[in-house]
Amino acid sequence: MCDTTGCSRQEALKTLEKADYHVKCAIVMRMKECSKEEAYALLDKVDGKIDRLLK
């Protein structure tokens, strides 16, 4: 997650906790600056294919 988002290990752990340790959700939360609920909704729209969100 740190490599993908550019955040520190501590920031990654905080975000992962907020995302209930769902890595894709946590990455979307960091990259899109959104809530867990918004991240899950975004992932649902792209069938969980995170690369579609991060283009």
Tally of helical segments: 5
N-end to C-end Cα span: 17 Å
- Backbone CA Rg: 10 Å
H/E topology pattern:
HHHHH
How many runs of DSSP E, i.e. beta strands?
Answer: 0
How would you sum up the global shape?
Answer: globular
Strand content: under 5%
Spans where pLDDT lies below 50 across 5 or more residues: none
What are the main properties of this structure?
single chain, mainly alpha, 0% strand, 55 residues
Structural notes for this entry:
With 55 residues, the chain is mainly alpha-helical. The chain is 69% helix and 0% strand. It is built from five helices and no strands. Helix 2 crosses helix 3 and helix 3 (23-32) packs across helix 4 (36-45).
In brief:
By secondary structure, the protein is mainly alpha-helical. It has helices at residues 2-5, 9-18, 23-32, 36-45, 50-53. The model has no long low-confidence stretch (mean pLDDT 95).
How is the topology of this model organized?
Blueprint: H1 2-5, H2 9-18, H3 23-32, H4 36-45, H5 50-53
